[in-house]
Design brief:
Layout: H1 13-21, H2 24-34, H3 40-47, H4 51-63, E1 67-71, E2 79-83, H5 85-88, H6 91-104, H7 148-157
Antiparallel strand pairs: 1-2
Length: 158
């Protein structure tokens, strides 16, 4: 098996998040956890992933604090995988990926499911990036700048 490069200490927050998720299987596992899947066999059936790979991916998600294990809710001897608060924080990422795919990869036919507001039954609005003052921002309206909090911490520790 080829050893992956670790981005755990990368300066780029996107690279660090990719180090946690690792690959598309992990995001599909997290997607299924949001859909209520909790058991190993259910993940395997839903995703169709080999047991050894699923074992490794679940362990990595637990190690990174995305999922935690808990006793089975039905009182059986099985364990279940449950999203942690850190794992629930992935929700906007999955919505953004879904909305991107709906816009750019579906070609007129549409998908079988639609993401809706549970209370109103209406489709979820497209995610938006907004400035602190509420203005809608596009990619050309943003840039990366040094984080002033990092400079302060370095001065305090020096």
């Amino acid at each position: 098996m080829v050893k992956r490069t670790s981005f755990e200490k990368a300066e780029c927050p996107i690279a660090r998040s990719l180090d946690v998720f690792g690959d598309w299987w992990s995001l599909l596992i997290i997607r299924d956890a949001f859909l209520g899947i909790r058991r190993f066999s259910e993940f395997q059936k839903s995703i169709g992933l080999a047991k050894n790979i699923l074992t490794v991916r679940l362990r990595a998600l637990v190690d990174h604090g995305i999922l935690k294990t808990a006793p089975a809710s039905d009182g059986s001897a099985y364990q279940e995988y449950v999203l942690t608060p850190k794992g629930r924080g992935v929700f906007p990422v999955l919505v953004a990926l879904r909305q991107w795919s709906e816009e750019f990869s579906c070609e007129n036919s549409g998908f079988k499911t639609l993401l809706v507001d549970r209370n109103k039954g209406r489709p979820v609005r497209k995610l938006e990036i907004r400035a602190e003052d509420g203005r809608l921002l596009a990619d050309g309206d943003t840039e990366l700048r040094p984080n002033p909090a990092i400079k302060r911490r370095r001065r305090l520790s020096a």
